[in-house]
Specification:
CATH topology: Rossmann fold
Bound molecules: adenosine-5'-triphosphate, magnesium ion
Distance between the termini: 39 Å
Number of strands: 12
Strand content: 25-35%
Structural class: alpha/beta
CATH superfamily: P-loop containing nucleotide triphosphate hydrolases
CATH architecture: 3-Layer(aba) Sandwich
Largest sheet: 6 strands, mixed
Radius of gyration: 22 Å
Order of helices and strands: EEEHEHEHHHEHEHEEHEEHEH
Strand order of the largest sheet: 5-6-7-3-8-9
């Protein structure tokens, strides 16, 4: 049995499609209430990992516990405690969002508890995801971003304890993205929802995640907060300033100390001060490149797309 605040425990997870090794020993934990972002290049195995944790996909090997159960054997009670937003799915095009949400909500009724009344009220839910104007139109008429909002609504209608979001904001306009970030904070802060999400938007990852995992070459190559990862990769920050019309740039591992000295020496002559730490994008690119050139055997090889109707771009070694 895992510790009471560990919601997800993954040990030596392996996944092979035919002869293609996609996951080659993945290890991580997620604690209750954490928001964790899973990053990685196209084809790294993020969707594969998430679908295994959701119990939608079998695994080749490894030990997994999600909400106290092996997802491969999760029963209906277990499933009702999780929420899922898949990377892509198409269903019920002629229904309206309101009808679909009412229909799906009924499934959660037997699992309602005083702590977590289930399902969520559909009117409130429609407002939460900003779908008021489209609530009574056929789903087939929704735009890509509106469809994604509906997907998010479907994921949270059962007030899940653990929510999986696979690229939830793909196709969102900037305002929808901002509203979604507020929604994630609300779910995390007020409902203590544990969240695992994938995204290719590193700004979003930094904004949302308590912890970031980077999956590359079939393994987790980084695990930590955005700051922790940045410190691992680039110990140095860049300090820029100008003094008497001249511009200066200096790299230093101790930006605060350096700036303090600068002011002690030059006081009010210092202008245009800027301190730039490595962004998550710098860190991410460095870590993925390190993995690619790190002398490890390539584990991801091009996938024969004839075997999979919706095959995604394979990573070319
Ligand atoms: N059912 C399948 N059969 C065979 N190969 C598959 C199957 N599903 C995924 N793959 C392959 O496994 C690898 C990982 O795919 P996955 O969808 O997990 O990647 P991802 O990290 O989610 O990528 P993206 O960022 O593009 O969504 C890819 O090379 C993909 O082609
Ligand atoms: Mg994916």
């Amino acid at each position: 049995m895992i510790g009471s605040d560990t919601v997800v425990r993954v040990r030596d997870l392996r996944m092979t499609y035919g002869t293609v090794v996609v996951l080659d020993g993945v290890d991580f934990d997620i604690r209750k209430g954490e928001v964790v972002t899973l990053l990685g290049p196209n084809g790294a195995g993020k969707t594969t990992t998430i679908e295994i944790l959701e119990g939608f996909r079998g695994r080749s090997a490894g030990e997994i516990e999600v909400l106290g159960a092996d997802p491969a054997k999760g029963n209906e009670d277990w499933r009702a405690r999780t929420g899922v937003v898949l990377q892509s799915w198409r269903d019920h095009p002629r229904w309206t969002p309101r009808r679909l949400l009412n229909h799906l909500g009924r499934y959660y009724e037997p699992y309602s508890t005083p702590d977590r009344p289930r399902p969520r009220n559909v009117d409130e839910l429609i407002e939460m995801v900003g779908l008021e104007e489209k609530a009574d139109q056929k789903i087939v008429t929704l735009s890509g971003g509106q469809r994604r909002r509906l997907d998010v609504a479907i994921g949270i209608i059962g007030r899940p304890e653990l929510l999986f979001l696979d690229e939830p904001t793909a196709g969102f306009d900037p305002q929808a993205r901002r509203e979604f970030h507020d929604l994630v904070h609300r779910l995390s802060d007020f409902e203590d929802t544990t969240i695992l999400l994938t995204t290719h938007d590193l700004d979003e990852a930094e904004r949302l995640a308590d912890r970031i995992l980077i999956l590359a070459g079939g393994r987790i190559v980084a695990d930590g907060s955005a700051d922790e990862l940045a410190r691992q990769v680039a110990g140095e920050a860049q300090v820029k300033w100008s003094c008497k019309g001249e511009h200066f740039v200096h790299s230093t591992p101790d930006a605060t100390g350096y700036v303090r000295n600068l002011f002690l020496q030059h006081g009010e002559l210092i202008q245009d001060l800027e301190v730039r730490r490595a962004s998550l994008e710098d860190t991410y690119i460095t870590m993925v490149q390190q993995q690619e050139t790190g002398g490890r055997d390539k584990v991801i090889v091009p996938f024969d797309r004839n075997n999979r109707a919706d095959a995604e771009e394979a990573v070319t070694p």
